[in-house]
Amino acid sequence: MAQTPPARHILNFALDAALAALALPAALWLAGPGNWPAPGWWWGGIALAVATLLPIGWALGLHKQYWRFAGLRDLLAVLAAALLTALAFFWLLRAADAWHGDNPAFPVLHAMVLAALLGAPRLLSRAQALRRAMEMAGAPAVLVAGSADQVDVFASALARARKPPYRIMGILTRRTRQAGRRIQGHPILGAIEEAEAVLERLRAEGRLPQILVLASPDLSGPPLARLLDAADRHGVPVRAAPQPTALAHAARDGLEGPRLDLRPVSIEELLDRPQVPLDREGMARLVQGRRVLVTGAGGTIGGELSRQVAALGPAMLTLLDHGEYALYEIDLELRERHPEVPRRAVLADIRDEARIRRIMEEARPELVFHAAALKHVPMVEADPLEGVLTNAFGTRVVAEAARAAGCALMVFISTDKAVNPTSVMGATKRLAEMYCQALDKLARAGEGGMRCITVRFGNVLGSTGSVVPLFRRQLERGGPLTVTHPDMRRYFMTVREAVGLVLQAAVVGAADRAEAPDPAAAEEAAPGLADVQRELREGGIFVLDMGEPVKIVDLARRMIRLAGLRPDVDVEIRFTGLRPGEKLYEELFHGQEPPRPTRFPGLLVATPRTADLALVARALEEIAASARAGQVRLALAQLSRLVPEFEHEANPARSGTAAR
């Protein structure tokens, strides 16, 4: 039968009392060998020594300590208890005129002996637990990588486990000069960037670890990729430790055996990049206290926009989506995360002019984020008229209704597929870009009122219909992983980073130059803003810096390895051929719109071809009429005239080469 906590406390009291009883004669002998008190003194003296320790030990929590988990704080409590007990015991004896000795150092000697007797069994228990953890039969040997502090938290959690599931055989830290030192007795073998050399040395010694454990959750991007490559070359699987906060919480609460379930490394962590500095104060000024509406709020981008906007404290947040369940999910999430934010969830189709106009009149948003769109290339190729009506005409419906309701700024989310489009989806998004450009030029010329910022970027990791969730589902079924072409490349960005940069673009694009009529003063206040505003007045749009494109087949191989499997051995990679409308290489800029960097990290500016607003609006009405009439060929012909770079080829094998 397991001991209850009170029973364990009583046992600790009894053991500490016995040690206090032993400490007294030892201290008396050291203070004056052979100078023993009278026989009748002993019973009272020992009783007083024990009685003095117990309340002090209670106050300092000695009875609550797990000896085999004893740490620095526990030993400091032992030292404090020994010192206070020795001083109190000596003072009580002098006060009762029962002190017989003549050595003034007795309190110090008594404190030292008592501290040694109380601390020794605790240290021995801890050492035994550590030794058992290190020598645990059958426990896999692990190499732990991370910062020294986070490795220490993981090692402490492992030492507290009754049956440690892993045995640390070495450590890789972030600093090269830490090599040769130890953390809780475990040797630091080198730095993380030296993983290849360390693993090579361990292989030569026949001590290759069974698992490489990542103790630092902030290790991501290229450094993580290099570490994974080194581990993969030596056949060492990589797993991530639980969050340090969870392990530290268990340590503070004195929990026995915290969970040490290691998890696979996600592809998002691998492709993630260091967070660029963002103007959080500017975002707060843009959103706080204002009425905001997000279209496509149930989607990947719209949902993350809703989360980040809600965190900035809008006066009212209107969530608009055509999908009932997706809208319900984001509404429920925001209700739980930000219950203080006034919120309204609205089911609506952005192509329904009358409905969207009524919603805008009721909500009267000051800021609109337009993320609603049909984004899946093959699906839009199969139903091109739906893409025309939603992506192009629907954008005009939202923009016109927002402008009529007095909206100050609309942010339109575009895609890299709008550049040299070979798909209907890309061409319709380019047409929507043209309309938003024309609308923004009119506003910046002082004739339109509402500004319209366009932000273009590539694929978002984990978004609905993207390749990462597809690969995950295929892995769960055991494969194969299907890739359309061995040379296909795509840009990738995490949704958190993309939406953060969208908000940053909104802040920069909405800046009012009228408040600073002196260009020199404005440039001094916000370096680089004048150049950006000049580009935007000429029809410029923001493009997110997506980094380098990633080969999809490399992404597939990496995901297989992260699952602990071998590409082409455990899981097949099958090439299926390009689908209608797909390109081998996506582009962020047209050949005639070279990228221009801004002084805002992560944001670039392009100036695509623009057109007159009235001309684009009339053309949108015509193409929408053709789409509503079901005239596919006429609608696509009109789309090609409006977007001359649109090369819609029936043969998908040729559409990839058309991208370059």
What features would you describe in this structure?
There is one protein chain. Helix 13 packs parallel to helix 15. The protein folds into three domains: 5-130, no CATH class; 136-265, NAD(P)-binding Rossmann-like Domain (Rossmann fold, 3-Layer(aba) Sandwich), CATH 3.40.50; 280-459 and 494-512 and 538-545 and 587-659, NAD(P)-binding Rossmann-like Domain (Rossmann fold), CATH 3.40.50. Helices cover 50% and strands 13% of the residues. The protein has 660 residues and is of the alpha/beta class.
The fold-level CATH name of the largest domain is: Rossmann fold
Count of domain modules: 3
What is the C-alpha radius of gyration, as a whole number of Å? 34 Å
Shape: elongated
CATH class of the largest domain: Alpha Beta
Query: Taking all residues together, what is the mean pLDDT?
Result: 80
**Major β-sheet strand ordering:** 10-9-8-11-12-13-18-22-21
Topology:
Layout lengths: L4 H27 L7 H22 L11 H24 L10 H29 L6 E5 L2 H13 L6 E7 L8 E2 L2 E6 L3 H10 L6 E4 L6 H13 L4 E3 L3 H9 L10 E2 L2 H5 L8 H8 L3 E5 L4 H12 L4 E6 L2 H14 L5 E5 L5 H11 L3 E4 L6 H6 L1 H21 L4 E7 L8 H21 L6 E7 L1 E2 L6 H10 L4 E3 L5 E2 L1 E2 L1 H15 L9 H7 L3 H9 L3 E4 L5 E2 H11 L10 E3 L20 E2 L5 E4 L6 H16 L3 H11 L9 H4 L5
